[in-house]
Design brief:
alpha/beta
Length: about 220
Amino acid sequence: MTIRVLLADDQTLVRAAFAMLVESAPDMEVVGQAGTGREALELARTERADLVVMDIRMPDLDGIEATRLIAADEDLAGVRVLVLTTYDTDEHIVEALRAGASGFLVKDTRPAELLDAIRTVAAGEALLSPGPTARLIARFLRSPSTPAVGGPECLSERERGVLTLVARGLNNTEIADALGLSPLTAKTHVSRIMGKLGARDRAQLVIVAYESGLVTPGTM
């Protein structure tokens, strides 16, 4: 199945480079390019993209607000957003995740990593792996904010354990191994947790885990 990718960046050369890279992958195609957040929103609606690679800093409508509008549009429920950022704007990563993005990449990432990230997010996974960047996100997630979704109080003990592992960056297979479950059972738990919390995807589950204190910085 071909992944339909929309590229949103205000720099023409950057978009062109990303377009060449994405088109080189046999399982992807570029269905549109946007130079502003508003163009990205319009093209997401008209081109039926599966995923938007969204720069944060853009004119007219920035990438965070464009992401928020995409996530809030019921007609675009299947569209995932992968945001691009730089280390000097780390606080914007959390804003983008709260707005509904499913993951992020820094702009100097390697080409193969970008393609893998697109596949990961398009498949419904959150691109939040363990490591220094995840710890950085954790630090900002602990700043005062009103959570966009419900807290973990409604979860069973098992579900809270699964949520903790999701927040630490484990995929369904790794969660299954850690808890002695089958991968299908782990996947079922994650889906049920998302339903109970009203979360759009695993990225929002990570936000709930940190904002509720279920997982804290330094425990990655």
